[in-house]
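Write out this protein's structure.
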Amino acid sequence: MEYILELKGITKRFGSLTANDKINLAVRKGTVHAVIGENGAGKSTLMNVISGLYRPDEGELFVRKKKVSFRNPSDASRAGIGMVHQEFMLFPELTVLDNIMMGYEKRKMGLFLDKKMIRKQVETICEEYHFNIPLDEVVQDLSVSMLQQVEIVKILYRGVDIIIFDEPTSVLTPQGIEGLFDAIRFLVKHGKTVLFITHKLKEVMEISDDITVLKNGHYVNTVTPQQTDEHDLATMMVGREVLMTVRKEEKQCGEVLLEVKNLSVSDYEGRAKLDDVSFCLRKGEILGIAGVAGSGQQELVESLFGLRKSSGGQVLFGGKDITHLNCRNHRLCHIGYVPQDRISEGINREASLWENAIMGYHIVKGFQSRYFLNRKQAVSFTERIIEQFNVKAASTNLKIKTLSGGNIQKLIVGREFLQDNSLLIIEDPTRGIDIGAIEFIWKKIESLAAAGTAILLVSHELNEVMEVSDRILVMYDGQLYDGGGHGEKTETEIGLLMTGGGIL
């Protein structure tokens, strides 16, 4: 059996925390090898070791039976390893071609940029692997699924044979996921090897040849899809039985709390992003909004929370016009917000856990003194979040940037869920978190709604919208369409609406 990549006794520490503890991993050439585990299991750290972002403290790494030591990602790239990150590493204001060649420019006579040769090489790659991407388009104008293709072509241009995908399906439609899987199968057919990092066990079972489970920084087991099922994988990951369903019971929602009338919103360049949108949300109701990224969900949420001005229409909250209120006043109305971009909008990376935990809390709850921040009260609230939402952190004084993405997400969700809001606007609440935490957050959303909180759930995870929502709306090209009540439409039917199919 030919192994293209082998890890032997890999250990990586961050101070007193051991993220990877003597991990062994063997990846067969020309296969899709999934690596799964809870947040804090060590998946991202291990992938960062493989891709050259981190250097291991102990252990050995072999590529094609040859021992290697990477100082940086460029070293890994020269060894044939590339990574498609969950947060795309692209420059939005540059063209696709400029992004692909960035850092790997070909030059004539060692001096002059040979863009003609680069274009020809990229076009050959696109033709060989069946990618149809507009090389002269500016990246910021492309869809999420197209951006993903750009990332794949970018690392293929660098000549890699081992491709790491980190949570690649987090913002794709069912059709987009199938398109990605077709691309992965095609890559493997042409001799590439894929490492696939995800929390979605259904996808793991569909696309993988081998599956490795990590838990608390340790290796647990490697199995094939034929040897296991989703239930057993979840049990290995979490250490207990996990039920990924929400028990929906008949309930009577209260009076209308949020009413949106003929809302229109433009982007920062004046282009219309929302066109005459109207809907209402009742107390105790969970209203889910599905849609392909870029369809207008972001502009809708930002206008509802006072982050963006509308160009027309009205937003009523409890009968009061809040259309032009700022974020602070939205918070004073007891409206909470979980942003989709947890790094740029949800936290201050350089601040501590407790400083991030009281964002918004200081406005709504306040402190015992009007003039001095009560450190004890702030830390106590932070500890409640850590305990109730299982945030893996050694201290409330740690800088939040030291946490994994999933643990940052849990802290943000906990911060908003524990503030007794009347309305929660939630974007992608379970993005990048493990299966056990997803189950917990779904149940928490349901319990908040049962207690009377109105929930507006905007998620790129269609299964999440379908499982949790009482009622579904689909956003396409800046307009909303009826997605039916809970269980009324199939995943395929809603996925079709998300791409404009079936709309009269």
